[in-house]
C-alpha cells in the first residue's frame, strides 16, 4: 500500500538559494540517481547554470526521459549507464566517466539511494541498501578521483558531495552491515525494523565516508582544491517513499514512517538545496555538512555542526576498502 497522496509542496527556499550559486560554464558535474527527486533537481539546476552534466543512472525509459528533458532545456548532458547494485557496472561507469571528462570532473554528486528495502543481497553479496547507498559510491569516487584532481589543478576546485539523511541518527556503525551478509541480516519479521536499521546504517555511512575522505585525501590534492562535503535533504517529498511502498512497505511500521515523512516534507526543490550548496557555493569548504537544522523537520539549508566519530570513520574506511577491493584509493 502506497502512502496517502498529498498535495504538491510549495517551494519556499530554493529560489533564494539559487541566487547564491555561481555560473558553471566550462564545468562538468556528474550526478548519480538523476532520473527523479533531488538528483534530478541537482542535474537540471547545474545544466541551467551552464555546466555539462553527466547523468549516472541505470538504463531505462526514465533515464532516457530525464536526459531528453535536460537537453530540451538547453543543457549539455550525457547519460552514463551505472547500476549501483553491481560493482562491475560501477567499474564500467567509472571508466566511461573518466573518458567523458578529459578536462576534469568538477563535481561528483553521490546522490542516488534506495530506502526501506527487504533483506536482499546484491549479486556481489552485500545488503542492497548499503551497496547502493554507500559501497558503490565509495568505489566510484576512487575510480574517478584522477578526474577530480585534474579539475582542481585546472580550476582550483573539485568536490565530492555525498547525500546523507536525517535517518543517519541512531545506533553506531556496525561492521556486519558492510560485509557480505546481504540477505542474512534479518529483522524483516514483525514489526519490520530491520529494513529501517539497514537504511540508517547506510546513511550514517555516507556521512562517515565524507569525513574519512576529507582526512585521508593526499595533502597535495587538498592543496589543489579537492574537497569532500556532505548534505542531507530533510524530510522531502522526492518520490522515494512511493518506491519504498512499491517494494513491500505495507507493514504498519512502514506506513507510519513513510506517512510521517510525507506529512512533514518540503518540496523536492527545497530538499535539493543541501547538495546544491555543498557542491556549488564558493564558500563551502572540505569536511562541511549542510542541511535543515531541525531534527526531522524541513527548513532552510544551514551549515551543520560536524558529527565526528574517528573510530567509526576508520572502521568504515577499512571495511569499505575490503568490501570493494580498492587497492590504491587515490591512485598515488
From TrEMBL:
One MF annotation (Gene Ontology) recorded for this entry: oxidoreductase activity
Keyword flag Oxidoreductase: yes
Keywords associated with the record: Oxidoreductase
Keyword hit for Metal-binding: no
Stored InterPro entries: NAD(P)-bd_dom_sf (IPR036291), SDR_fam (IPR002347)
Pfam families the UniProt entry points to: adh_short
Entry's family note: Belongs to the short-chain dehydrogenases/reductases (SDR) family.
Identification of the protein by name: SDR family NAD(P)-dependent oxidoreductase
Amino acid at each position: 500500500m502506497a502512502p496517502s497522496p498529498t498535495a504538491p509542496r510549495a517551494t519556499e527556499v530554493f529560489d533564494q538559494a539559487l541566487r547564491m550559486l555561481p555560473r558553471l560554464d566550462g564545468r562538468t558535474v556528474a550526478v548519480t540517481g538523476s532520473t527523479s527527486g533531488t538528483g534530478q533537481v541537482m542535474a537540471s539546476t547545474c545544466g541551467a547554470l551552464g555546466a555539462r552534466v553527466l547523468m549516472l543512472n541505470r538504463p531505462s525509459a526514465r533515464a532516457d526521459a530525464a536526459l531528453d528533458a535536460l537537453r530540451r532545456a538547453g543543457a549539455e548532458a550525457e547519460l552514463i549507464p551505472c547500476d549501483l547494485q553491481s560493482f562491475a557496472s560501477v567499474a564500467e561507469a567509472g571508466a566511461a566517466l573518466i573518458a567523458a571528462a578529459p578536462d576534469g570532473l568538477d563535481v561528483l554528486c553521490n546522490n542516488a539511494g534506495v530506502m526501506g528495502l527487504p533483506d536482499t543481497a546484491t549479486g556481489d553479496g552485500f545488503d542492497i541498501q548499503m551497496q547502493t547507498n554507500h559501497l558503490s559510491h565509495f568505489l566510484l569516487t576512487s575510480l574517478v578521483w584522477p578526474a577530480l584532481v585534474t579539475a582542481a589543478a585546472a580550476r582550483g576546485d573539485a568536490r565530492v558531495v555525498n547525500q546523507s539523511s536525517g535517518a543517519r541518527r541512531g545506533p553506531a556503525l556496525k561492521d556486519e552491515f558492510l560485509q557480505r551478509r546481504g540477505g542474512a541480516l534479518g529483522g524483516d519479521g514483525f514489526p519490520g525494523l530491520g529494513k529501517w536499521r539497514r537504511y540508517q546504517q547506510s546513511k550514517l555511512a555516507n556521512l562517515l565516508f565524507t569525513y574519512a575522505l576529507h582526512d585521508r585525501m593526499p595533502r597535495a590534492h587538498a592543496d589543489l582544491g579537492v574537497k569532500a562535503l556532505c548534505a542531507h535533504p530533510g524530510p522531502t517529498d522526492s518520490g522515494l517513499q512511493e518506491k519504498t511502498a512499491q517494494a513491500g512497505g505495507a507493514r504498519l511500521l512502514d506506513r507510519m514512517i513513510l506517512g510521517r515523512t510525507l506529512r512533514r516534507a518540503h518540496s523536492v526543490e527545497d530538499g535539493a538545496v543541501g547538495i546544491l550548496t555543498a557542491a556549488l557555493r564558493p564558500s563551502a569548504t572540505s569536511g562541511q555538512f549542510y542541511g535543515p537544522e531541525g531534527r526531522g523537520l524541513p527548513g532552510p539549508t544551514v551549515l551543520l555542526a560536524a558529527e565526528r566519530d574517528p573510530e567509526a570513520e576508520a572502521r568504515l574506511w577499512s571495511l569499505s576498502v575490503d568490501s570493494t577491493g580498492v587497492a590504491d584509493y587515490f591512485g598515488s
